Amino acid sequence: MRNTTKLGSALVGMTVLVVLAAPATAEEDAPRSVGGPAVPQQAGPDGKLIPQTPQERPDTPYLPGVAEGFSRGADGVVLHTFATGAGWTPWTPIGDRPVVGTPSGVHQPATRSTEVFARDTEGRLVHADNAGEGWSEWSVIGDRRLAGDPLAVHQPNTGTTEVFARGVDGRLIHTDDSAGEWSEWTVIGDWTVTGPLTPVKDARTDVTEVTARTTDGRVLRVENAAAGWAIWSVS
């Protein structure tokens, strides 16, 4: 078990902070600001705290209610915190599996559970969830190797979580749990992409759109309309 001192020092290598939030209850249906988790700090030579700056742009989706934060420590373990009425809890590790890059978290409103996805040191997609009884063990999804960080979105109308990533061949790949278990990875289109992906969901239409940058510098947008994945535009 890690103590607070060890956990604090592990945050020196933080690369990302993901903030999630549960939907508001009937009594708190109006949006309210819950702020954000304090940036992890370490003491300098004079004993004063020095704010630590994430190495990558934080992914911060927001819904009214309780917020959660995820980061990757210097030892590669995913760390978690959440906001209560008394402020933010101490950072705690989710298991002991080391990961690389940026973890991605989503909240499931229907079950009030949280899922977090990451890329392990072998390049595989790994997943853990918390339905209120503590975090599950990390599990591996599929056998594809990823060249970029996974990005997850949740469709509340269908109860489906989708994950997008860039494969080692540069192709945009996708998996989801719409059938009750994780599907095989599928390739979307025949474009090669680079850099981060940006998936967004439209709860009104149940359509998910993904924006990416192609290797020749253009913007690619795809969507999963009723007929399946389609190239929306390349510009």
UniProtKB/TrEMBL annotation:
Put simply, this protein is called PLL-like beta propeller domain-containing protein
Q: Which UniProt keywords apply?
A: Signal
Q: Where is this region: Disordered?
A: 26-61
Q: Which Pfam families match?
A: DUF8189
Looking up InterPro entries in the UniProt record yields: PLL-like_beta-prop (IPR058502)
Looking up Gene3D superfamilies in the UniProt record yields: Fucose-specific lectin
User: Which residues belong to the signal peptide in this entry?
Assistant: 1-21
Q: Give the source's domain of life in one word.
A: Bacteria
Domain PLL-like beta propeller positions: 67-233
